[in-house]
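Lab notes, practical 5.
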Amino acid sequence: MILNGHVNSEYTDDAKYWPIFEAAEALGTPIYLHPQGPSKGLIGPLLERGLDGAVFGFGVDTGLHLLRLIVMGMFDRYPKLKFIVGHGGEALPYWAYRLDYMHAAGIRSGRYEFLKPLALPISGYFKRNIYVTFSGVAWEPAIQFCRSTLGIDRIMYAMDYPYQYQADEVAAQDAMAMSAPDKKAFFQTNAEKVFDL
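Output from the prediction step:
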């Protein structure tokens, strides 16, 4: 199932959308959180400088959406739910340390009444519920970082076709410094497992 970002500028962390996630978990159906243009509340400053699309805005909006779902406890409520996020995890894996630290600090401070402790740190959901593809980010340092921090079973090859189609991406990624079993997981078996192929 594909969830193309927000719904008319409303993110799906609102409980009225959660029956969708409940059904997906019950069916074992993964949800791919795919970018679209940023929400009305986010687009202004991005649009002013031409940063609203794939260059930055898509990732910012999609990463924000996923974080909202995590901090509102959606993955605690549906612990077997599988989510897929592209473009190297929309940069969230690289923020993991700070996200974990500052979220815990926010909980301790009691600044937001609605913010409750989670079963896992934010990064824990990337290791339990979330799979990262590298559509549009065919860059070995990013792939290797996610492999080392999330685990080989959490990352998958993807091509951002037809928007960013570079035939040499496959050869470049095939040449990565990675064992043959890890490459097979990255290119094939992780997807087979996630999509029950």
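Observations recorded by the TA: Residues 57-71 form the longest helix (15 residues). The mean pLDDT is 96.
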